[in-house]
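Supplementary Note 3. Input sequence used for the single-chain structure prediction.
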Amino acid sequence: MKTDWIKVIVAAFFEVFWVIGLKHANDFLTWTGTVIAIIISFYLMIMAGKKLPVGTVYAVFVGLGTAGTVFSEILLFGEPFKVEKLLLILLLLIGVIGLKLVTKDKVREGDET
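The predicted structure, written as discrete structure tokens, is reproduced below.
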């Protein structure tokens, strides 16, 4: 099951790229990269959702992607840093981690452990 959670984390990593790409893409190459990031991101999330609880997968995906996007915008694109924003992102991540901790991974017959 850990490999499925790694898929979710990698999917969220690619989510950061496609969300930034939607805002900043302005030519064929950057739009191509954005589309490739969307495909990779959703493919990995869908594959993880086949073995893990879909609601939790989606919450973790969106939470990590949101946090990564906010931090990337601050670090790379000069978005203003606000303590309130950081605290709210931390609260979001605490909620995502909490969801992961309270969700039991079901092992279906025939699935690898």
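The first helix runs from residue 2 to 24. The chain has a mean pLDDT of 88.
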